[in-house]
Design a protein that fits this description.
By secondary structure, the protein is an all-alpha fold. The protein contains five helices and no strands. The longest helix is centred in the middle third of the chain and has 19 residues.
Protein backbone atom coordinates (compact mmCIF):
# COMPACT_ATOMS: atom_id res chain seq x y z
CA UNK A 1 0.00 0.00 0.00
CA UNK A 2 1.72 3.10 -1.23
CA UNK A 3 -0.39 5.93 0.11
CA UNK A 4 2.11 7.78 2.26
CA UNK A 5 0.59 8.73 5.59
CA UNK A 6 -3.00 8.62 4.36
CA UNK A 7 -3.36 4.87 3.87
CA UNK A 8 -2.07 3.76 7.26
CA UNK A 9 -4.00 6.55 9.02
CA UNK A 10 -7.22 5.46 7.32
CA UNK A 11 -6.67 1.82 8.23
CA UNK A 12 -5.83 2.60 11.86
CA UNK A 13 -8.94 4.79 12.09
CA UNK A 14 -11.18 2.06 10.73
CA UNK A 15 -9.61 -0.46 13.10
CA UNK A 16 -10.25 1.88 16.03
CA UNK A 17 -13.88 2.14 14.95
CA UNK A 18 -14.14 -1.64 14.71
CA UNK A 19 -12.52 -1.99 18.14
CA UNK A 20 -15.00 0.43 19.69
CA UNK A 21 -17.92 -1.39 18.05
CA UNK A 22 -16.60 -4.73 19.24
CA UNK A 23 -16.12 -3.38 22.77
CA UNK A 24 -19.76 -2.21 22.79
CA UNK A 25 -20.93 -5.61 21.43
CA UNK A 26 -22.41 -4.14 18.25
CA UNK A 27 -23.36 -6.75 15.69
CA UNK A 28 -20.90 -7.12 12.82
CA UNK A 29 -22.38 -5.93 9.55
CA UNK A 30 -25.06 -3.70 11.08
CA UNK A 31 -25.40 -0.07 10.10
CA UNK A 32 -24.16 1.02 13.53
CA UNK A 33 -21.03 -1.06 13.03
CA UNK A 34 -20.29 0.72 9.76
CA UNK A 35 -21.07 4.08 11.38
CA UNK A 36 -18.30 3.38 13.91
CA UNK A 37 -15.95 2.49 11.06
CA UNK A 38 -16.82 5.69 9.18
CA UNK A 39 -16.35 7.76 12.34
CA UNK A 40 -12.98 6.19 13.06
CA UNK A 41 -11.87 6.66 9.47
CA UNK A 42 -12.73 10.35 9.29
CA UNK A 43 -11.65 11.10 12.85
CA UNK A 44 -8.20 9.64 12.36
CA UNK A 45 -7.63 11.37 9.02
CA UNK A 46 -8.86 14.67 10.38
CA UNK A 47 -6.81 14.53 13.56
CA UNK A 48 -3.58 13.34 11.99
CA UNK A 49 -3.58 15.63 8.95
CA UNK A 50 -5.78 18.59 9.99
CA UNK A 51 -8.14 18.23 7.03
CA UNK A 52 -11.62 17.91 8.62
CA UNK A 53 -13.73 18.69 5.57
CA UNK A 54 -11.72 16.44 3.27
CA UNK A 55 -11.80 13.62 5.84
CA UNK A 56 -15.59 13.82 6.19
CA UNK A 57 -16.12 13.92 2.43
CA UNK A 58 -13.72 11.02 1.86
CA UNK A 59 -15.54 9.00 4.50
CA UNK A 60 -18.86 9.72 2.80
CA UNK A 61 -17.35 8.64 -0.52
CA UNK A 62 -16.14 5.35 0.96
CA UNK A 63 -19.08 4.45 3.23
CA UNK A 64 -22.04 6.27 1.70
CA UNK A 65 -24.22 9.28 2.40
CA UNK A 66 -26.11 7.62 5.27
CA UNK A 67 -22.92 7.77 7.37
CA UNK A 68 -22.34 11.47 6.84
CA UNK A 69 -23.39 12.53 10.36
CA UNK A 70 -21.01 10.25 12.33
CA UNK A 71 -18.23 11.07 9.83
CA UNK A 72 -18.73 14.82 10.19
CA UNK A 73 -18.99 14.77 13.99
CA UNK A 74 -15.91 12.58 14.34
CA UNK A 75 -14.00 14.73 11.88
CA UNK A 76 -14.78 17.91 13.80
CA UNK A 77 -13.89 16.37 17.16
CA UNK A 78 -10.63 14.92 15.82
CA UNK A 79 -9.64 18.23 14.29
CA UNK A 80 -10.40 20.19 17.47
CA UNK A 81 -8.42 17.77 19.64
CA UNK A 82 -5.26 17.73 17.52
CA UNK A 83 -5.40 21.16 15.88
CA UNK A 84 -1.89 22.18 16.89
CA UNK A 85 0.03 19.25 15.39
CA UNK A 86 0.03 16.99 12.38
CA UNK A 87 1.65 13.72 11.45
CA UNK A 88 3.86 15.63 9.01
CA UNK A 89 5.45 17.71 11.77
CA UNK A 90 6.42 14.54 13.64
CA UNK A 91 7.86 12.99 10.50
CA UNK A 92 10.02 16.01 9.69
CA UNK A 93 11.26 16.30 13.29
CA UNK A 94 12.44 12.69 13.29
CA UNK A 95 14.12 12.96 9.90
CA UNK A 96 16.31 15.87 11.08
CA UNK A 97 17.83 13.86 13.93
Amino acid sequence: MSAGFTGPSALVGMLLGVSAASFLHIEIGSSTYFAFMAAGFSGMLSSSMNVPLAAAILSIEVFGLEYSFPAAVSSIIGFQMMRGSTIYSYATENSKK
